Amino acid sequence: MKIGIVCYPTFGGSGVVATELGKALATHGHQVHFITYRQPARLDFFSENLFYHEVAVSQYPLFDFLPYESALASKLVDVVRFEKLDVIHVHYAIPHASAAFMAKQILLTYGINIPVVTTLHGTDITLVGKDKSFSPVVTFSINQSDGVTTVSQSLKDQTLTYFDIKRDIQVIPNFIDLERFSIKDRSHFKRAIAPGNERILIHTSNFRKVKNTGDVIRIFQKVNEHIPSKLLMVGDGPERTNAEELCRDLGVCQDVRFLGKQDAVEEILSVSDLFLMPSSSESFGLAALEAMACKVPVISTNTGGLPELNVNGETGFLSDIGDVEEMAKNAIYILEDNDRLEKFKDAALERAKTFQLSNIMPQYEEYYRQVIEKV
Ligand code: GMT
């Protein structure tokens, strides 16, 4: 198949899923065309089946806001016509689904009926999408897509609750490339971070409010009172300064390292013992899956799709949003006993295997086939 993929080219979960999916489809013999405003962060590999088309938006003094959606729709028309694509797959509804709808309508005037698949990733529904300023457009473009997928059952349920949806939605969960995300021997790094063989806790995110990075620090402080430990904070974003200040206020700075954005997250996960994800909303929790693939159990909230990934009492624990006390207690329970920690680590990896790329990519291929056949 010739597949056009539209996504945000950043390190965010939706962009990562879109890029990894495109790379896997290309390896599987499909021709994949990425259409976005910058080379996707994870598009770091060469294949004769991979193409990148940049959406450039011209500056004009009249534009206070650049009309990206129009530029994207125009680029889609161009790429579909000249590359003869079979399907467009857009990741994250805003503004990709409505741009694809516009492109589809234009292409019909050329006698081309291109199927559009929209994958909803989370905040496009749970936070931004349901805002009044977007919801009519999000509802319309979901209903007009030829196929719609969500990354968890929970996100499907929320989509059906918040929006007036008149079509089927298929759940296709996030996936993991176990070749990349697997334990690497980085004992030198472990010795540098934890010279006294302390336990290593880790949090990776874009430090947005929804990630509750303050709770990460609060949980760590309580764990640190009982167990010699270090905390690695990976990523960057608007809440980082507050998180750093909280470390100072709670007196744990000497045991917390802010590492900023990192490309080789799998190497840092390889030396870690426990992943903290106290988010107030999480449609799936790709970062937690990445940790589990590197044998790191997860302390998370029970929100959104997290219970579909993290098995309570087996691969980690689930708690109510904001229940720092319980999350710390569960973290200590896992970390205080070597054999118990090993059990949780093994279970985390076993669970991650369910979501391996080779299980999930064929679901997208099959879905594209069904959608193409129907159009
Ligand atoms: O988590 C983020 O802030 C990034 C965000 C995105 O849209 O790029 O991630 C969302 O999509 C991921 C991939 O499908 C999911 O694994 C994340 O759970 C989801 N984030 C939220 O729902 C907050």
Automatic annotation (TrEMBL):
Against InterPro entries, the record matches this protein to:
Glyco_trans_1 (IPR001296), Glyco_trans_4-like_N (IPR028098), Glycosyltransferase_grp1 (IPR050194), Thiol_BshA (IPR023881)
Q: Where is the Glycosyltransferase subfamily 4-like N-terminal domain?
A: 11-180
* Gene3D superfamilies registered for this protein in UniProt: Glycogen Phosphorylase B (3.40.50.2000)
Q: Where is the Glycosyl transferase family domain?
A: 189-349
Protein name, as recorded: N-acetyl-alpha-D-glucosaminyl L-malate synthase BshA
| Gene that encodes it | bshA
